[in-house]
Design a protein that fits this description.
Bound molecules: zinc ion
Radius of gyration: 23 Å
Largest sheet: 6 strands, mixed
CATH architecture: 3-Layer(aba) Sandwich
Helix content: 40-55%
Number of domains: 1
Structural class: alpha/beta
Number of helices: 13
Number of strands: 8
Mean pLDDT: 80
CATH topology: Aminopeptidase
Strand content: 5-15%
Order of helices and strands: HHHHHEEEEHHEHHHEEHHEH
Amino acid sequence: MMQKQFQISIVRIILLYWLLLSFMTIIDCDDNNNNNKKKDDKNILDKSDLKNLIQNIEFDEKFFRSILDKILIPRSVDSTGHETVRQYIKNTLRDLNSRWHVEEDVFRTRTPAGQLKFHNIIATYVPEFGCVKSKSSLKRTILACHYDSLKSTLVKGGSSSSSSSTNSQIEQQLQFIGATDAAVSCSLMLYLAHKMNDYLGKLWLNYSLSNRTVQLNTLQLIFFDGEEIIRSDPNIIRSKRYKSKFPQTDSLFGSKHLANKWEKISNELNEQQNHRFNTTTNDINNNNVTITKRSRHSTTTTTQNENPVMKNKKNSKITEVLIISPQDYHTIDDIKLFILFDLIGGSSSRFYNTNLNTSHYFQQLIQIEKSFVQFNNETKKTSKSMNKNLFQQNPAFMVSFVRDDHLPFIIRNVPVLHLIPHPFPRIWHSMDDNLDNLNFNSISRFVTIMQIFLLNYFGLV
Ligand SMILES: [Zn+2]
Protein backbone atom coordinates (compact mmCIF):
# COMPACT_ATOMS: atom_id res chain seq x y z
CA MET A 1 0.00 0.00 0.00
CA MET A 2 1.38 3.32 -1.02
CA GLN A 3 0.56 6.00 1.48
CA LYS A 4 -1.80 6.68 4.39
CA GLN A 5 -2.74 10.12 5.47
CA PHE A 6 -5.63 10.98 7.68
CA GLN A 7 -4.99 14.70 7.81
CA ILE A 8 -7.98 16.66 6.57
CA SER A 9 -7.15 18.97 3.73
CA ILE A 10 -9.27 21.09 1.45
CA VAL A 11 -8.69 18.72 -1.46
CA ARG A 12 -9.93 15.82 0.61
CA ILE A 13 -13.02 17.62 1.77
CA ILE A 14 -13.86 18.36 -1.86
CA LEU A 15 -13.23 14.71 -2.73
CA LEU A 16 -15.49 13.55 0.10
CA TYR A 17 -18.22 15.93 -1.00
CA TRP A 18 -17.90 14.64 -4.53
CA LEU A 19 -18.06 11.00 -3.41
CA LEU A 20 -21.20 11.67 -1.36
CA LEU A 21 -22.81 13.39 -4.34
CA SER A 22 -21.87 10.43 -6.53
CA PHE A 23 -23.38 8.05 -4.04
CA MET A 24 -26.61 10.01 -3.89
CA THR A 25 -26.76 9.92 -7.68
CA ILE A 26 -26.21 6.19 -7.74
CA ILE A 27 -28.94 5.60 -5.17
CA ASP A 28 -31.31 7.73 -7.17
CA CYS A 29 -30.55 5.96 -10.44
CA ASP A 30 -30.81 2.49 -8.96
CA ASP A 31 -33.96 3.10 -6.99
CA ASN A 32 -36.37 1.78 -9.60
CA ASN A 33 -34.45 -1.46 -9.94
CA ASN A 34 -33.78 -1.94 -6.26
CA ASN A 35 -36.09 -4.90 -5.75
CA ASN A 36 -34.84 -6.71 -8.82
CA LYS A 37 -31.26 -5.97 -7.87
CA LYS A 38 -31.70 -7.53 -4.46
CA LYS A 39 -33.20 -10.63 -6.04
CA ASP A 40 -30.37 -10.87 -8.59
CA ASP A 41 -27.70 -10.59 -5.94
CA LYS A 42 -29.37 -13.08 -3.57
CA ASN A 43 -28.74 -10.42 -1.02
CA ILE A 44 -28.63 -12.44 2.16
CA LEU A 45 -28.10 -16.17 2.54
CA ASP A 46 -30.38 -18.12 4.79
CA LYS A 47 -28.74 -19.62 7.84
CA SER A 48 -29.00 -23.26 6.81
CA ASP A 49 -27.42 -22.49 3.41
CA LEU A 50 -24.60 -20.69 5.15
CA LYS A 51 -24.05 -23.50 7.62
CA ASN A 52 -23.92 -25.99 4.78
CA LEU A 53 -21.32 -23.95 2.96
CA ILE A 54 -19.18 -23.38 6.04
CA GLN A 55 -19.26 -27.09 6.82
CA ASN A 56 -18.21 -28.01 3.31
CA ILE A 57 -15.58 -25.38 2.60
CA GLU A 58 -12.24 -26.16 4.15
CA PHE A 59 -9.33 -23.76 3.75
CA ASP A 60 -6.45 -25.61 2.10
CA GLU A 61 -3.52 -23.95 3.85
CA LYS A 62 -0.91 -26.15 2.25
CA PHE A 63 -2.12 -25.23 -1.23
CA PHE A 64 -2.36 -21.55 -0.30
CA ARG A 65 1.22 -21.56 1.04
CA SER A 66 2.45 -23.22 -2.14
CA ILE A 67 1.10 -20.25 -4.13
CA LEU A 68 2.37 -17.68 -1.65
CA ASP A 69 5.83 -19.23 -1.73
CA LYS A 70 6.13 -18.36 -5.44
CA ILE A 71 5.06 -14.75 -4.99
CA LEU A 72 6.90 -13.93 -1.77
CA ILE A 73 10.07 -12.61 -3.38
CA PRO A 74 11.28 -9.04 -4.06
CA ARG A 75 9.29 -7.92 -7.10
CA SER A 76 9.67 -4.18 -7.55
CA VAL A 77 9.00 -2.80 -11.05
CA ASP A 78 11.73 -3.68 -13.57
CA SER A 79 13.38 -6.33 -11.35
CA THR A 80 14.03 -10.02 -12.02
CA GLY A 81 11.56 -11.01 -9.30
CA HIS A 82 8.88 -8.85 -10.90
CA GLU A 83 9.25 -10.75 -14.18
CA THR A 84 9.28 -14.11 -12.37
CA VAL A 85 6.08 -13.39 -10.44
CA ARG A 86 4.35 -12.01 -13.52
CA GLN A 87 5.07 -15.20 -15.48
CA TYR A 88 3.99 -17.34 -12.51
CA ILE A 89 0.62 -15.57 -12.22
CA LYS A 90 -0.06 -15.85 -15.95
CA ASN A 91 1.00 -19.49 -16.20
CA THR A 92 -1.02 -20.49 -13.13
CA LEU A 93 -4.19 -18.99 -14.58
CA ARG A 94 -3.59 -20.43 -18.06
CA ASP A 95 -3.03 -23.88 -16.57
CA LEU A 96 -6.33 -23.69 -14.70
CA ASN A 97 -8.58 -23.79 -17.72
CA SER A 98 -8.57 -22.61 -21.31
CA ARG A 99 -11.64 -20.52 -20.50
CA TRP A 100 -9.46 -18.07 -18.61
CA HIS A 101 -8.44 -15.45 -21.13
CA VAL A 102 -5.11 -14.20 -19.76
CA GLU A 103 -3.53 -11.05 -21.16
CA GLU A 104 -1.08 -8.28 -20.35
CA ASP A 105 -1.82 -4.58 -20.54
CA VAL A 106 1.66 -3.26 -21.32
CA PHE A 107 2.49 0.44 -21.40
CA ARG A 108 5.33 2.87 -20.89
CA THR A 109 4.96 6.05 -18.94
CA ARG A 110 7.00 8.82 -17.41
CA THR A 111 7.66 8.43 -13.69
CA PRO A 112 9.77 10.39 -11.18
CA ALA A 113 12.41 7.68 -11.78
CA GLY A 114 12.32 8.11 -15.56
CA GLN A 115 10.47 6.30 -18.35
CA LEU A 116 9.34 2.84 -17.18
CA LYS A 117 7.48 -0.12 -18.65
CA PHE A 118 4.54 -1.56 -16.70
CA HIS A 119 2.52 -4.76 -17.13
CA ASN A 120 -0.99 -5.15 -15.70
CA ILE A 121 -2.21 -8.74 -15.81
CA ILE A 122 -5.87 -9.32 -16.67
CA ALA A 123 -7.62 -12.70 -16.59
CA THR A 124 -11.25 -13.04 -17.68
CA TYR A 125 -13.36 -16.17 -17.50
CA VAL A 126 -14.97 -16.42 -20.95
CA PRO A 127 -16.07 -19.74 -22.46
CA GLU A 128 -15.06 -20.64 -25.99
CA PHE A 129 -18.58 -20.87 -27.38
CA GLY A 130 -19.15 -17.23 -26.45
CA CYS A 131 -22.65 -16.97 -27.89
CA VAL A 132 -25.61 -16.81 -25.55
CA LYS A 133 -28.81 -14.89 -25.09
CA SER A 134 -28.21 -11.87 -22.95
CA LYS A 135 -30.28 -9.01 -21.61
CA SER A 136 -27.47 -6.59 -22.38
CA SER A 137 -23.71 -6.45 -22.66
CA LEU A 138 -21.52 -8.76 -20.58
CA LYS A 139 -21.09 -7.58 -16.98
CA ARG A 140 -17.94 -8.29 -15.01
CA THR A 141 -17.18 -8.73 -11.34
CA ILE A 142 -13.56 -7.89 -10.69
CA LEU A 143 -11.17 -9.09 -8.01
CA ALA A 144 -8.05 -6.93 -7.93
CA CYS A 145 -4.75 -6.41 -6.13
CA HIS A 146 -1.25 -5.19 -6.98
CA TYR A 147 1.65 -7.58 -7.58
CA ASP A 148 4.58 -5.14 -7.56
CA SER A 149 6.43 -4.62 -4.29
CA LEU A 150 7.97 -1.49 -2.84
CA LYS A 151 11.62 -1.02 -3.74
CA SER A 152 13.86 -2.21 -0.92
CA THR A 153 15.80 1.05 -1.08
CA LEU A 154 12.67 2.87 0.07
CA VAL A 155 12.28 0.70 3.19
CA LYS A 156 14.25 1.44 6.32
CA GLY A 157 17.00 -1.18 6.65
CA GLY A 158 16.45 -2.42 3.10
CA SER A 159 19.30 -3.31 0.75
CA SER A 160 20.24 -1.03 -2.13
CA SER A 161 20.51 -4.02 -4.46
CA SER A 162 17.43 -4.65 -6.62
CA SER A 163 18.09 -8.08 -8.12
CA SER A 164 17.21 -11.15 -6.09
CA SER A 165 18.84 -13.78 -8.28
CA THR A 166 22.44 -12.64 -7.95
CA ASN A 167 22.46 -11.63 -4.31
CA SER A 168 24.01 -13.51 -1.45
CA GLN A 169 21.65 -14.97 1.15
CA ILE A 170 22.33 -12.11 3.58
CA GLU A 171 21.56 -9.51 0.95
CA GLN A 172 18.32 -11.32 0.08
CA GLN A 173 17.24 -11.03 3.70
CA LEU A 174 17.57 -7.27 3.31
CA GLN A 175 15.13 -7.25 0.39
CA PHE A 176 11.55 -6.11 0.98
CA ILE A 177 9.09 -8.85 -0.01
CA GLY A 178 5.75 -7.28 0.98
CA ALA A 179 3.92 -10.28 2.45
CA THR A 180 0.77 -8.31 3.27
CA ASP A 181 1.67 -5.74 0.59
CA ALA A 182 0.32 -7.51 -1.42
CA ALA A 183 1.64 -11.09 -1.86
CA VAL A 184 -1.20 -12.52 0.25
CA SER A 185 -3.79 -10.67 -1.85
CA CYS A 186 -2.29 -12.06 -5.09
CA SER A 187 -2.21 -15.56 -3.58
CA LEU A 188 -5.81 -15.42 -2.41
CA MET A 189 -6.94 -14.34 -5.88
CA LEU A 190 -5.16 -17.29 -7.50
CA TYR A 191 -6.50 -19.57 -4.76
CA LEU A 192 -10.07 -18.33 -5.33
CA ALA A 193 -9.68 -18.65 -9.12
CA HIS A 194 -8.73 -22.29 -8.57
CA LYS A 195 -11.61 -22.92 -6.16
CA MET A 196 -14.17 -21.07 -8.32
CA ASN A 197 -13.08 -22.69 -11.59
CA ASP A 198 -15.62 -25.53 -11.67
CA TYR A 199 -18.38 -23.30 -10.32
CA LEU A 200 -17.81 -20.78 -13.10
CA GLY A 201 -18.16 -23.59 -15.64
CA LYS A 202 -21.52 -24.41 -14.06
CA LEU A 203 -22.51 -20.75 -14.15
CA TRP A 204 -21.87 -20.49 -17.90
CA LEU A 205 -23.54 -23.81 -18.58
CA ASN A 206 -26.63 -22.44 -16.84
CA TYR A 207 -26.42 -19.32 -19.00
CA SER A 208 -26.23 -21.34 -22.20
CA LEU A 209 -29.06 -23.73 -21.22
CA SER A 210 -31.40 -21.03 -20.02
CA ASN A 211 -34.63 -20.69 -21.99
CA ARG A 212 -34.94 -17.05 -21.12
CA THR A 213 -32.59 -14.16 -21.61
CA VAL A 214 -30.13 -13.73 -18.77
CA GLN A 215 -27.83 -11.02 -17.56
CA LEU A 216 -24.33 -12.36 -18.10
CA ASN A 217 -21.91 -11.67 -15.30
CA THR A 218 -18.46 -13.20 -15.23
CA LEU A 219 -15.37 -13.11 -13.04
CA GLN A 220 -12.33 -11.04 -13.99
CA LEU A 221 -9.03 -10.81 -12.12
CA ILE A 222 -6.66 -7.84 -12.32
CA PHE A 223 -3.13 -7.87 -10.96
CA PHE A 224 -2.06 -4.24 -11.11
CA ASP A 225 1.49 -3.16 -11.71
CA GLY A 226 3.10 0.05 -10.39
CA GLU A 227 0.89 0.59 -7.34
CA GLU A 228 3.88 1.41 -5.16
CA ILE A 229 5.96 4.55 -5.43
CA ILE A 230 9.03 3.98 -7.55
CA ARG A 231 11.00 7.16 -6.89
CA SER A 232 14.67 6.27 -6.72
CA ASP A 233 15.86 8.73 -4.06
CA PRO A 234 15.27 7.11 -0.63
CA ASN A 235 15.59 10.41 1.22
CA ILE A 236 12.66 12.01 -0.53
CA ILE A 237 10.06 9.43 0.53
CA ARG A 238 10.70 10.25 4.19
CA SER A 239 10.41 13.98 3.72
CA LYS A 240 7.29 16.05 4.43
CA ARG A 241 7.43 17.32 0.88
CA TYR A 242 7.01 13.79 -0.42
CA LYS A 243 3.95 13.06 1.71
CA SER A 244 2.15 16.19 0.68
CA LYS A 245 3.02 16.30 -2.98
CA PHE A 246 4.62 13.37 -4.75
CA PRO A 247 2.10 10.58 -4.16
CA GLN A 248 -0.25 12.24 -6.65
CA THR A 249 2.07 11.37 -9.53
CA ASP A 250 4.33 8.69 -8.09
CA SER A 251 2.02 5.70 -7.59
CA LEU A 252 -1.01 3.80 -8.96
CA PHE A 253 0.50 3.72 -12.46
CA GLY A 254 -1.22 0.49 -13.52
CA SER A 255 -4.71 1.28 -12.25
CA LYS A 256 -4.66 4.84 -13.59
CA HIS A 257 -3.64 3.59 -17.03
CA LEU A 258 -6.19 0.76 -17.19
CA ALA A 259 -9.18 2.77 -15.93
CA ASN A 260 -8.40 5.50 -18.45
CA LYS A 261 -7.98 2.99 -21.29
CA TRP A 262 -11.24 1.19 -20.49
CA GLU A 263 -13.09 4.47 -20.20
CA LYS A 264 -11.98 5.39 -23.73
CA ILE A 265 -13.14 2.01 -25.06
CA SER A 266 -16.52 2.47 -23.37
CA ASN A 267 -16.89 5.93 -24.88
CA GLU A 268 -16.04 4.68 -28.37
CA LEU A 269 -18.48 1.78 -28.10
CA ASN A 270 -21.22 4.04 -26.81
CA GLU A 271 -20.68 6.37 -29.76
CA GLN A 272 -20.91 3.43 -32.16
CA GLN A 273 -24.06 2.25 -30.38
CA ASN A 274 -25.69 5.67 -30.66
CA HIS A 275 -24.88 5.75 -34.35
CA ARG A 276 -26.38 2.28 -34.88
CA PHE A 277 -29.42 3.15 -32.82
CA ASN A 278 -30.13 6.15 -34.99
CA THR A 279 -29.70 4.04 -38.12
CA THR A 280 -31.97 1.30 -36.77
CA THR A 281 -34.63 3.79 -35.77
CA ASN A 282 -34.68 5.16 -39.29
CA ASP A 283 -35.00 1.65 -40.69
CA ILE A 284 -37.84 0.80 -38.32
CA ASN A 285 -39.64 3.94 -39.40
CA ASN A 286 -39.29 2.70 -42.96
CA ASN A 287 -40.61 -0.80 -41.95
CA ASN A 288 -37.39 -2.51 -43.04
CA VAL A 289 -36.38 -4.28 -39.83
CA THR A 290 -38.08 -7.15 -38.06
CA ILE A 291 -35.59 -7.83 -35.29
CA THR A 292 -34.81 -5.36 -32.57
CA LYS A 293 -31.33 -5.09 -31.19
CA ARG A 294 -31.22 -4.85 -27.39
CA SER A 295 -27.67 -5.41 -26.25
CA ARG A 296 -24.83 -3.09 -26.97
CA HIS A 297 -22.00 -3.12 -29.51
CA SER A 298 -21.47 -6.87 -29.85
CA THR A 299 -25.01 -7.86 -30.61
CA THR A 300 -25.64 -9.04 -34.11
CA THR A 301 -28.22 -7.10 -36.04
CA THR A 302 -29.93 -9.16 -38.69
CA THR A 303 -33.30 -9.55 -40.25
CA GLN A 304 -35.46 -12.36 -38.92
CA ASN A 305 -34.75 -14.87 -41.68
CA GLU A 306 -31.00 -14.30 -41.61
CA ASN A 307 -30.43 -14.79 -37.91
CA PRO A 308 -28.04 -17.78 -37.57
CA VAL A 309 -29.04 -18.70 -34.05
CA MET A 310 -32.75 -18.10 -34.02
CA LYS A 311 -33.55 -19.09 -37.59
CA ASN A 312 -35.76 -21.99 -36.52
CA LYS A 313 -37.99 -19.74 -34.46
CA LYS A 314 -39.82 -18.17 -37.35
CA ASN A 315 -42.31 -16.40 -35.18
CA SER A 316 -39.71 -14.70 -33.11
CA LYS A 317 -39.76 -10.94 -33.42
CA ILE A 318 -37.03 -10.09 -30.95
CA THR A 319 -33.74 -11.80 -30.28
CA GLU A 320 -30.90 -10.84 -28.03
CA VAL A 321 -27.78 -12.71 -29.03
CA LEU A 322 -24.51 -11.64 -27.55
CA ILE A 323 -21.36 -12.76 -29.29
CA ILE A 324 -18.57 -12.15 -26.82
CA SER A 325 -15.42 -10.56 -28.15
CA PRO A 326 -12.45 -9.09 -26.22
CA GLN A 327 -13.81 -5.55 -26.38
CA ASP A 328 -16.75 -6.74 -24.26
CA TYR A 329 -14.52 -7.23 -21.25
CA HIS A 330 -12.36 -4.14 -21.76
CA THR A 331 -14.89 -1.50 -20.76
CA ILE A 332 -15.38 0.65 -17.68
CA ASP A 333 -19.18 0.80 -17.99
CA ASP A 334 -19.87 -2.90 -17.54
CA ILE A 335 -18.11 -3.45 -14.23
CA LYS A 336 -20.81 -4.63 -11.85
CA LEU A 337 -18.55 -4.77 -8.81
CA PHE A 338 -14.85 -4.06 -8.24
CA ILE A 339 -13.34 -5.72 -5.14
CA LEU A 340 -9.85 -4.53 -4.22
CA PHE A 341 -7.69 -6.47 -1.75
CA ASP A 342 -4.72 -4.88 -0.04
CA LEU A 343 -2.66 -5.41 3.14
CA ILE A 344 -4.41 -8.72 3.86
CA GLY A 345 -2.86 -11.27 6.23
CA GLY A 346 -1.55 -9.32 9.23
CA SER A 347 -2.58 -9.76 12.85
CA SER A 348 -5.57 -7.90 14.29
CA SER A 349 -6.92 -6.87 10.89
CA ARG A 350 -10.19 -4.91 10.97
CA PHE A 351 -12.20 -4.07 7.86
CA TYR A 352 -14.81 -1.32 7.71
CA ASN A 353 -17.48 -0.31 5.25
CA THR A 354 -15.87 2.58 3.39
CA ASN A 355 -18.02 2.58 0.23
CA LEU A 356 -21.66 3.53 0.65
CA ASN A 357 -22.96 2.19 -2.64
CA THR A 358 -21.66 -1.31 -1.91
CA SER A 359 -22.78 -1.40 1.74
CA HIS A 360 -25.12 -4.32 1.09
CA TYR A 361 -22.17 -6.44 -0.01
CA PHE A 362 -20.20 -5.48 3.08
CA GLN A 363 -23.21 -6.51 5.21
CA GLN A 364 -23.09 -9.93 3.54
CA LEU A 365 -19.44 -10.30 4.58
CA ILE A 366 -20.42 -9.48 8.18
CA GLN A 367 -23.24 -12.00 8.08
CA ILE A 368 -21.05 -14.75 6.63
CA GLU A 369 -18.40 -14.15 9.28
CA LYS A 370 -20.97 -14.28 12.10
CA SER A 371 -22.16 -17.67 10.89
CA PHE A 372 -18.56 -18.80 10.46
CA VAL A 373 -17.75 -17.87 14.08
CA GLN A 374 -20.94 -19.46 15.36
CA PHE A 375 -20.22 -22.71 13.54
CA ASN A 376 -16.64 -22.79 14.80
CA ASN A 377 -17.80 -22.12 18.36
CA GLU A 378 -20.25 -25.01 18.13
CA THR A 379 -17.57 -27.32 16.81
CA LYS A 380 -14.94 -25.84 19.18
CA LYS A 381 -12.68 -24.88 16.29
CA THR A 382 -12.22 -21.28 17.41
CA SER A 383 -8.66 -20.09 17.61
CA LYS A 384 -7.66 -17.84 20.51
CA SER A 385 -5.84 -15.51 18.14
CA MET A 386 -9.06 -14.80 16.25
CA ASN A 387 -11.44 -13.75 19.00
CA LYS A 388 -12.39 -10.56 17.15
CA ASN A 389 -14.15 -10.32 13.84
CA LEU A 390 -12.48 -9.15 10.65
CA PHE A 391 -15.53 -7.33 9.26
CA GLN A 392 -16.77 -4.63 11.59
CA GLN A 393 -20.39 -3.62 12.04
CA ASN A 394 -19.53 -0.35 13.78
CA PRO A 395 -19.22 2.27 12.61
CA ALA A 396 -21.68 1.43 9.85
CA PHE A 397 -19.71 3.66 7.51
CA MET A 398 -16.20 5.05 7.73
CA VAL A 399 -14.66 7.71 5.53
CA SER A 400 -11.32 6.56 4.17
CA PHE A 401 -8.62 8.65 2.54
CA VAL A 402 -6.42 5.76 1.57
CA ARG A 403 -4.82 6.14 -1.83
CA ASP A 404 -5.10 2.79 -3.56
CA ASP A 405 -5.85 1.19 -6.92
CA HIS A 406 -9.63 1.63 -6.50
CA LEU A 407 -9.44 5.43 -6.90
CA PRO A 408 -9.12 5.59 -10.72
CA PHE A 409 -12.23 3.37 -10.88
CA ILE A 410 -14.32 4.98 -8.15
CA ILE A 411 -13.98 8.40 -9.77
CA ARG A 412 -15.49 6.81 -12.89
CA ASN A 413 -18.56 5.63 -10.94
CA VAL A 414 -17.53 1.97 -10.67
CA PRO A 415 -19.09 0.29 -7.58
CA VAL A 416 -16.14 -0.54 -5.31
CA LEU A 417 -15.63 -2.76 -2.30
CA HIS A 418 -12.24 -1.73 -0.91
CA LEU A 419 -11.02 -4.41 1.48
CA ILE A 420 -8.04 -2.99 3.32
CA PRO A 421 -7.62 -3.06 7.12
CA HIS A 422 -7.86 0.04 9.30
CA PRO A 423 -5.43 0.75 10.79
CA PHE A 424 -2.77 -0.68 8.51
CA PRO A 425 -0.75 -3.64 9.83
CA ARG A 426 2.05 -2.44 12.12
CA ILE A 427 4.56 -4.10 9.80
CA TRP A 428 3.44 -1.96 6.84
CA HIS A 429 6.38 -0.83 4.68
CA SER A 430 8.92 -2.36 7.03
CA MET A 431 11.34 -5.25 6.64
CA ASP A 432 9.09 -7.19 9.04
CA ASP A 433 6.42 -7.54 6.38
CA ASN A 434 7.40 -11.17 5.80
CA LEU A 435 6.14 -14.75 6.20
CA ASP A 436 6.95 -14.86 9.94
CA ASN A 437 4.48 -12.08 10.67
CA LEU A 438 1.52 -13.41 8.72
CA ASN A 439 -1.48 -14.65 10.66
CA PHE A 440 -2.80 -17.77 8.95
CA ASN A 441 -5.91 -17.93 11.12
CA SER A 442 -6.83 -14.51 9.79
CA ILE A 443 -5.96 -15.49 6.21
CA SER A 444 -7.94 -18.73 6.48
CA ARG A 445 -11.02 -16.91 7.73
CA PHE A 446 -10.75 -14.09 5.18
CA VAL A 447 -10.33 -16.44 2.21
CA THR A 448 -13.16 -18.74 3.32
CA ILE A 449 -15.52 -15.79 3.77
CA MET A 450 -14.63 -14.48 0.31
CA GLN A 451 -15.20 -17.90 -1.24
CA ILE A 452 -18.65 -18.14 0.34
CA PHE A 453 -19.41 -14.56 -0.65
CA LEU A 454 -18.58 -15.25 -4.32
CA LEU A 455 -20.59 -18.48 -4.44
CA ASN A 456 -23.59 -16.62 -3.07
CA TYR A 457 -23.01 -13.59 -5.28
CA PHE A 458 -22.98 -15.68 -8.47
CA GLY A 459 -26.01 -17.68 -7.29
CA LEU A 460 -24.02 -20.92 -7.09
CA VAL A 461 -25.25 -22.16 -3.70
ZN1 LIG B 1 2.86 -0.65 -0.16
